[in-house]
From TrEMBL:
It comes from Danionella cerebrum. Pfam families: Ig_CD22 (PF24518). This is Ig-like domain-containing protein. Residues 100-185 form the Ig-like domain. The chain crosses the membrane at residues 188-205. InterPro entries: Ig-like_dom, Ig-like_dom_sf, Ig-like_fold, Ig_CD22, Ig_sub.
């Protein structure tokens, strides 16, 4: 086995989906050839010829933390979406970035409607994201600012018999995760987008 083949960085997940404004954690593990001593490790964005430490980039100022081999980014922005790699620096000018890395997609929430989408004429509202969130996320619906108790909810969808001039919003609750996200969950602060259904009501009930 060649020496270069002994360099290795492994990632538990190659794709990560996270909500805008939340905190995300990306993990890694690594190994290197014997005879080398690791002097520094950090994470960087995959950019041609650029291996800058995320903690040295202005756009991530105050938002990036390292915990051993784990990357934590707080207050996520849509512009944080990209490909991230863990980099190893050693005492013998050995440098290695774990390719291909982890693709992070930061998403917002969007409410969409599907009138008459079922055989019995029910209206379906969907709380959509640009990527697939992990199973630790649950979707919550609000009608005119109050949590929906009537109707039937399934996954990210809300089923309604009819709609009028009403305001609906969806939110996501994280059942486990970084401490910052737990605080959001306990204080009932959600990332949400509102859907004004007045126009739809006019179109379908005039």
């Amino acid at each position: 086995v060649s020496e270069s083949a002994c360099w290795n960085v492994a990632y538990p997940s190659r794709r990560v989906c996270a909500l805008e404004g939340s905190t995300v954690e990306i993990s890694s593990s690594y190994s290197h050839p014997s005879g080398f001593t690791v002097t520094k490790t950090f994470w960087h964005l995959v950019q041609p010829g650029d291996f800058r430490n995320l903690q040295e980039e202005d756009r991530f100022a105050g938002r990036v933390e390292y915990e051993e081999n784990k990357l934590r980014i707080k207050e996520l922005k849509r512009s944080d979406s990209g490909q991230y790699q863990f980099r190893i620096i050693t005492d013998k000018e050995g440098k290695f970035s774990g390719s291909p890395g982890v693709i992070l997609t930061v998403t917002d929430l969007q409410v969409t409607s599907h009138p008459d989408a079922t055989a019995d004429g029910k209206v379906i509202l969907s709380c959509a994201t640009r990527c697939t969130l992990s199973e630790k996320h649950t979707f919550i619906w609000y009608k005119n600012g109050r949590r929906v108790t009537e109707g039937f909810t399934k996954a990210n969808k809300l089923y309604l018999d009819s709609i009028g001039s009403e305001e609906f919003s969806c939110a996501v609750e994280e059942t486990e995760g970084p401490e910052e996200n737990d605080v959001l969950q306990k204080s009932m602060i959600f990332i949400s987008l509102l859907l004004i259904l007045a126009l739809i009501g006019v179109l379908f009930f005039r």
